[in-house]
Amino acid sequence: MPYDPRPVSKGGNRGIDDEFSRQAPEGKFRVVGVDTFDGTDWVDGDYETLDLAKTRIQEKTKGESMLKYYIYDDTGKFVDSAGTF
After folding, report:
1. pTM (2 decimals)?
2. pLDDT, tens digit, 9 for 90 and up, residues 28-56
3. Would 57 disulfide with which of 17, 42, 69, 75, CB 3.0-4.6 Å?
């Protein structure tokens, strides 16, 4: 499917805040992946520490293109990212 920035509920392919929340459970950090070619996104996992989340996004994006990973805290605030468009 080509990139469509609208939320899934409006016919697009962006799931964040529609199919899942960017907010991690209390005391954790949520990692969200985005395929920047087709616009799909997903929860990769919730991590106990920021260091674990940072390690995960570095591992997942190493040598990849058109792939971004984002880290959010338990308030839904953006913390860090890795990858390229």
Report:
1. 0.91
2. 999 999 998 888 999 999 999 999 999 99
3. 69
